[in-house]
Task: structure prediction
Amino acid sequence: MFSGIGFTLLSCTFFMGLVAWISYLKTKGETEDSTGYFLAGRGLNGTFIAGSLLLTNLSAEHLIGLNGQGYRTNMSNMAWEVTAGFAIVIMALYLLPKYLGGAFTTLPEFLSTRFDEGVRRYTVMLFMLGYILVTIPSTLYSGALTILKLFDVPGLLGISYTQSVWLLIWVIGIIGAVYAIFGGLKAVAVSDTINGIGLLIIGLLVPALGFFALGDGNMFEGMKTIATNSPEKLNAIGSSTDSVPFGTIFTGMIFANLFYWGTNQYVIQRTLGAQNLKEGQKGVLYSGFYKLAIPLFMMIPGIIAFHLYGGGLNPVDLAYPTLVADVLPKYLSGFFLAVLLGAVFSTFNSLLNSAATMFALDIYKPQFNPKATDEQLIRMSKWFGTVIALVSFFISPLLMNAPDGLWDLIRRFTGFFNIPIITIVLVGIFSKRIPALAAKVVVIFHVITYYLLVWGLDQMFGIQTTINFIHIYAILFFVEVGIMIAIGKWKPLQKPYVYKANAQVDMVPWKYALPVTFILLSLLASMYIVFSPIGLAYQDSIVSGYFWPAIAGLAIVTGILIYLSLKVWNRKYADFLSEQHKKEVKEARKLA
Result:
């Protein structure tokens, strides 16, 4: 037993050490100023951005939580990942040119120029509460839980389950914090890209081995089994009783994804470090294709586990660890552990890096030391990152008491900060005279109202809200937009807001941005055709007679859109961005 564990730990240490060494070589001497530390010297290319976005987004709670949902119900939870393509397109084509054109380092910095310093502080407070109380703890806890289940840490070390969770959280957290606190953004991006390759290898290997096991050595028989036995498990069109009803894709999920991919600091910070608009757009759009692959290795293994073990696993989050323990060769266990830890570290250190960046640039410098040097900013961010890490180490184990499971907890709690932030950002971009007061009112209104609708009415008055919390996202978004418009009519700004162009990188868009966009959206739609009652969830055969005509029709429409984009729309889009940027530069010069 120990020799097997010893080999696993040795091979894991080797792989992680290799990643750390490559990251060190790539970043040596490049984090000595604030631009190098916080934005990787504005030198990230599309590949590093896409790889970092993938690993920043994916972590152990996805491997465990999504596979658990696939095991328990069906493919409807893939909506959280696949439909991100819509938000990714908006980010790449519209929001990213705004961010890079203004040379912003943080989202709160943009909001301070649009509204005021008070809105900046409100936003930072929302981000920090979300990071400290939910996102960072869930990342650490899910990583600890996975390792604990896979390697029987309590039995191996002779300690209790609770002690094992505490121990693993601290070990994982300390190692991950070193990357973020001492390496800066480029170290995070480089290590993420390398770990991303490992995650894709392992991610595709586990379902392939699972199909072999299910088909008694024949992978295609295993694939046929999940398509013909209980095909309803492959249905992504969620009903009203599923945790993700299909209708929510067109309501609250749009805004949840747009917040995540367009305004969430720890995600967009990678794109703000792009060497130019072209590379930034490449990285963002590439990440959309990665998201389409997630159901293959973050939900299909759960369905394979259902066919192998039946529906009796309790809790359902055991589905993925159980499958991995059974099908993965022992000689790959160290590589798997390294990739798993890499995914955990990526999300954790990305969160720490972004939290430290916001503290240094949005709190410390404007409020306490406007003349802070680069050295002081970096030092303060490291101290704050250390404090955040330590606090999260104590909060993370408390998630053992979460009554409804990790995945549900994360999605519900992010509702406290995702909708008010995306509301404020979009209204800020598309309006000229709405004042800071409107943004502050919306933040306070949302936190109170969201709590009441999701938990408070039931807890205090016994009134149960039957509306799915994702629909509540959309309802509150439109209500809050209305509140901001109403306050703007009541107390408009005396002088209209003027966007100040200050681009530090080349702003020529990627010439294939529009064709790639249409390919991405087409593949997104095809995923819902494949995992639907006319596709693999068809009851009477592998697919229905409508499947191939639907795929063919989608391909024809996509081909026409790609042709038009190459011949006409590409040029118009580039001209639109160019003219808009020139206009903004002129307005900025007038103000100067």
User: Anything to note?
Assistant: DSSP finds 24 helices and no strands in the chain. Residues 20 and 191 are 7 Å apart (CA to CA). The radius of gyration is 24 Å. The first helix runs from residue 2 to 27.
